[in-house]
Design a protein that fits this description.
There is one protein chain. With 407 residues, the protein is mainly beta. The chain has 2 helices and 33 strands. The longest helix is centred in the last third of the chain and has 6 residues. The chain starts with 19 loop residues before the first strand and ends in an 8-residue tail after the last helix.
């Protein structure tokens, strides 16, 4: 089975019909900006500042944890919404105003923010797009809203497929990667590498199927030629895009839970892993060196025979992601409890609990800002799925002795 996290990124583009050509292969069009919904509160348990950028009754969810949510300059953050016209949206962090990222030529999705410019990479059908966002902030948004527009560039057009992952950008901002199934029809899933400047497409590797599946395609945050994809067994697979060699750095047991991997610093991959069977599994946060296979536990889960599924889930982790500066790893569980873990000392510290009802609702799947100071996640505390940004308290930042890696 092929999974895609682009579903909520599909939106209707019929409402914005005014656009002009500005250069060969580029168009400009306006975006609709709507009033702020921001609600700020302090977590009563931990003191972390929680900024809900959406409080609408619609279902709003953050981008998946291995896609970039924050713009290069930190002025806006991306998320998905099922409110009309559905799909990719952004929040202007200076004013709290929201904007729809809508294309006049059709729906866009599978998005990630660019590393080195205020752009978004996204898919529209089989077209790979670069959407450069331009914003003019209003002095008083209560009287007159800010304005936003897009300069759209079609980077390339991919062959048709039956399923796709989100786009992901490498660590030097030159290449994109994406997983595609059924391209061409009947063939095994493929990981494609796309040159941002030229649009050239290269096959990184073909993935065996069935029973394999291919998902979570993402680049190393350290090496511009290494990317990974998820399979059934072994789960973690690393591709050298220069040579096409595929390796599996983690020595996984056949029945071992391994899930939700994320590239961290120094070619390390954080992931969740445990030996007991689901749903009452133990699940630790681990980190593996993608080149040596050396693995350690950053935060330990636990399991006991008499524990109910709900009780055990409270003590274990499900998603994890590393901050780009190497100082933190964030993890969540099935109850929506979010923990940050010190990179050096491996101390797990509760950040904010209770953002999901066990057994229902979207998982937080926590993502990071560019500075390692804030995380973004989906919360159900306001009664529906909302996007929340939690700021790590200064006292916790100061107590973390992990040396930051320059970005």
């Amino acid at each position: 089975m092929f999974y895609s996290y682009a579903g909520r990124a599909l939106i209707c583009g019929a409402m914005f019909l005014s656009f002009i050509s500005i250069a060969h292969g580029e168009t400009r069009y306006p975006l609709t900006v709507v009033p702020s919904e921001t609600k700020v509160e302090e977590d009563p348990v931990t003191g972390a500042v929680l900024t809900y950028i959406t409080t609408n009754a619609a279902a709003d969810t953050n981008l998946y944890f291995h896609e970039r949510s924050w713009s290069m300059d930190g002025s806006f953050v991306l998320y998905y919404s099922d409110r009309a016209p559905r799909g990719l949206m952004g929040c202007l962090l200076a004013t709290g105003e929201l904007f729809h990222v809508t294309s006049p030529s059709g729906e866009v999705g599978a998005a990630t923010a660019a590393l080195k410019k205020n752009s978004i990479f996204a898919m529209r059908g089989n077209d790979v797009l670069e959407l450069t966002i331009e914003v003019k902030l209003a002095k008083n948004p209560k009287r007159k809203r800010s304005t936003a527009s897009v300069i759209e560039r079609v980077i390339t057009t991919l062959p048709p497929c039956t399923g796709s992952t989100s786009l992901n950008e490498n660590c030097d901002g030159t290449k994109l990667a994406i997983g595609r199934e059924g391209s061409p029809a009947g063939s095994n899933p493929v990981v494609l590498v796309i040159d941002q400047a030229t649009g050239d497409i290269k096959e990184a590797c073909r993935v065996p199927s069935p029973p394999q599946f291919m998902n979570h395609v993402q680049w190393s945050q350290t090496s511009a030629n290494l990317l990974s994809f998820a399979a059934v067994y072994p789960r973690i697979n690393v591709v050298n895009t220069d040579t096409g060699e595929v390796t599996s750095p983690y020595d996984q047991l056949r029945d071992e839970l391994v899930t939700h991997e994320h590239w961290w610093v120094n070619d390390q991959i954080v992931f969740c892993s445990g030996a007991h069977p689901q749903p009452s599994e133990d699940s630790h946060v681990k980190v593996v060196d993608a080149k040596t296979g050396e693995t350690r536990i950053l935060a330990a889960g636990s399991w006991w025979p008499s524990g109910s599924d709900e009780e055990v889930a409270k003590q274990n982790y499900w998603h994890c992601s590393g901050s780009p500066d190497g100082r933190w790893v964030a993890a969540d569980n099935w109850h929506g409890d979010i923990t940050v873990i010190e990179g050096k000392n491996a101390r797990p510290i509760p950040l904010t609990p209770g953002h999901r009802n066990y057994g229902s609702g979207d998982h937080p799947h926590v993502g990071w800002d560019r500075k390692g100071e804030q995380v973004i996640f989906t919360s159900h505390k306001q009664g529906s799925a909302d996007v929340c940004i939690a700021t790590i308290p200064k006292a916790l930042q100061d107590a973390n002795t992990t040396k930051a890696i320059a970005q």
